[in-house]
Amino acid sequence: MIDVQRLRVLRQVAECGSFNRAAAALGLTPSAVSQHIAALERTVGTPVVTRSTRGAALTEAGRIMVAAAESVAAELAHARRQVDLLGSGRPRLTVATFTSGGRFLLPGALAALTAACPDAMLHVREAEPEDALRQVRQGAVQLALAYCFDGPLPGGRAGVEWIPLLDDPLRIVLPAGHRLADRTALDLGELASEPWVLGCLRTEEYLRRYAARAGFAPQVRGTTTDYFFACSLVAAGLGVGLVPSIALAQEMPPGVCAVPVAEPEPVRRIGIAVIGRRRDDPLLAALTGALRDRAAAVGR
């Protein structure tokens, strides 16, 4: 039988990329971590980790076992919530969200949920998509409001289901007096000589890929973790920006304007991640429905 503690250790090694860092995170010695992994490999009959001077990497068998570890962690977390419910009689729901989605989509949905389920105990935590999806897989949160750019949609791993909500086009943010401010749309290549100010590391990665297709490498003069701050720097003349529409919907600093990007328009895809077999949970289903309603209202 596979030991759950050894699965937990393997999962930590996968997250940390080394035995030493995993040991520190778990409060164990590196030797103890190595012994747990060796015992797990004896149990399954094949290596789960490859070791090198650069750290530790999962084998294919190791990836399968980590997916199983995440499922086990999620099931144990669910069982704990069910036990807590027996004692308190109040259903609980923990949600992870990225900042701009949390500001624009979540409050209205939570207001509708608390009106419909006043006894529910709700918890919200901020997390970037990769971390939020990991927390869903491990059962730390029951729903993640997340996003992705190009590439495959999230979900599929450890039973995670991705429910699309809306497409969020990115806009070019310019100082109000910029020579291109009156345009109805802009090709990214027209801004090849401009310095850039960005409000998110993931947006910077996407901009660099998108700019490469347009034949230039962007000169990034400012990086922040807040779109409003980034727009304020654009207003001050530090550069131009690339900002998702919903981050501009509630509040935009004076002195800037937003212009659509010409086709092919860069889009951030926003959705919900849940464990598929839990999506019929009444509280989870109610919040999913409220988020869908909110997203549909935004799209009109």
TrEMBL record:
Single annotated GO MF: DNA-binding transcription factor activity
InterPro entries named among the record's database cross-references: LysR_HTH_N (IPR000847), LysR_subst-bd (IPR005119), WH-like_DNA-bd_sf (IPR036388), WH_DNA-bd_sf (IPR036390)
Signal peptide: none
Domain of life: Bacteria
Keyword field contains DNA-binding: yes
Domain HTH lysR-type: 2-59
Full protein name: LysR family transcriptional regulator
